[in-house]
Amino acid sequence: MGLFILKRFGVMVMTALCLTFIVFFLTNLYPNLEKLAKSEGNFRMSDEEVASYLGNNGYLRPLPVKYGEWLGVWPGYVITGSDGKTRARCATIDIPVDQAPTFCGVLQGDWGFSNVFKDEVSSIVGTRLGLTGKLMFWVMVLMIPSALIVGVLAGMKEGSKLDRSLSSFAITTTATPEYVSGVILITVFASSAFGLKWFKGTATQAADAATFENFFLPVLTIALYGMGYIARMTRASMAEVMTAQYIRTARLKGVSFRNVVMKHALRNALIAPFTVIMLQFPWLLNGVVIVETLFNYKGVGWTLVAAAGNNDIELLLGISVVSVMVVLITQLISDIGYVYLNPRISVN
Questions:
Q1: Does a structural domain hold residue 52?
Q2: pLDDT tens readout for residues 220-262
Q3: Which residues pair with 59 in a beta bridge?
Q4: Which H or E run contains 28?
Q5: What region does 84 belong to: left with phi over 0, alpha with psi -120 to 50, or beta?
Q6: Are residue 230 and residue 207 in the same domain, yes or no?
Q7: What's the pLDDT tens digit per position in 7-56?
Q8: What's the whole-number mean pLDDT along residues 156-176?
Q9: DSSP 78-137
Q10: From CA 288, how far away is CA 80, in angstroms rounded?
Q11: With contact defined as beta carbons under 8 Å apart, do 147 and 231 qualify?
Q12: Lesser CB count within 10 Å: N end or C end of the chain?
């Protein structure tokens, strides 16, 4: 198992480097850098002025060098620009050029500075990730038990009216995008269109003080979409297990249906859904982009949209690091958990 984890960790590191390099390449395309220069200066800058700004601030150097500096494995630049001023990548307001450290990148904890939010990227990402983590936690609390109950009940008696009803519900929730279900839920339960107004307050307020009234709708919007997918996988797995030979043998021996389900079928039926559940974490990072923007909940998804809309390169890179790490860590946990749950899988 130790060698298996070590191999997976090595693949994780290589994948993280490849994915972050792709994001770094896309964000450092010249049109993006030109837009950055004009947003920092003025939008009437000439091409020569744009090139001068980018050259003075180290943006025109080779891409591998810039990527190495951003990672923190290559010494930060020290450039004397065309205006005669000396600038260093690792210099800040509090640290002058002559006292700046040699390395300052992600590995050193320096994620850069957001030109939109005017704050350190690491501080912004940490705060927003905490808000999104709170949202994801309550989504999982609602989504996973509900989905497993629906899937198990549907798979216990395949082809019954209960199975068809629950399967139709699961398909409907999965086929309805978050931006559609979110608008429907807001219209029905939070506006005066139907006269209900059960939920008051906004998700923006939930960032500081979450209550049932201002936080349940965004949680439900995300949970509904993921619930259907997990329920369908659980239902298919449960239906397959219930037709296995050992289940039939247990029934012929007189074991009650409840004990057959709880003691024999349930554990084997949950092997496939476990992997699907772990894959929901990366999906949630995509789902929260839509839902957080729709409900104006200022987590990682909302921040990503704001950073992309304002060409905040450093913040985009910081969020990409978090996203990549969440995906890779959940994949590793999923692989390890699958080995423990499925006795037929051996790790050499």
A1: yes
A2: 988 888 888 888 888 888 888 877 787 778 777 777 777 777 7
A3: none
A4: none
A5: left
A6: yes
A7: 878 888 898 899 899 989 998 999 989 888 888 777 788 888 888 888 88
A8: 86
A9: EEE-TTS-EEETT--SSS-GGG--S--SGGGT---EETTTTEEHHHHHHHHHHHHHHHHH
A10: 43
A11: yes
A12: C
Q: What is the pLDDT of residue 42?
A: 79
Q: Which domain holds residue 147?
A: 122-341
Lowest pLDDT segment from 107-116, 148-157, 330-339: 330-339
The chain-wide mean pLDDT, for the chain, equals 83
Q: Which two tokens stand for residue 195?
A: 């006269």
Q: Are the C-beta atoms of 278 and 333 separated by less than 8 Å? A: yes
Rounded to the nearest angstrom, the gap between the alpha carbon of residue 38 and the centroid of all alpha carbons in its chain is 31
Task: Evaluate whether residue 331 is within a structural domain.
Answer: yes
- Reported as a pLDDT band with limits 50, 70 and 90, residue 124 is very high
What distance in Å separates the CA atoms of residue 230 and residue 227, rounded to the nearest whole number? 5
Q: From residue 51, give the alpha-carbon distance in Å to each of 34, 57, 76, 187, 190.
A: 8, 10, 20, 49, 51
CA–CA separation, 56 vs 98, rounded Å?
A: 17
DSSP state of 77: P
Quote the percentage of the chain above a pLDDT of 70: 93
Cβ neighbors of 296 (< 8 A, separation 6 or more) are 202, 203, 204, 302
CB atoms within 10 A of CB 71: 18
- Tokens of residue 140, six digits: 């999982």
The residue type at 159: G
Q: Do 210 and 67 sit in the same domain of this protein?
A: no
Domain shared by 229 and 310, yes or no: yes
Are residues 162 and 53 part of one domain? no
- Rg of the chain, C-alpha, whole Å: 26
DSSP alpha helix (H) spans, 157-211: 161-175, 178-185, 203-206
pLDDT exceeds 90 at position 332: no
Rounded to whole angstroms, the Cα distance separating 23 from 274 reads: 30
pTM: 0.80
Q: Both 68 and 208 in a single domain?
A: no
Which tokens is 265 given?
């079928």
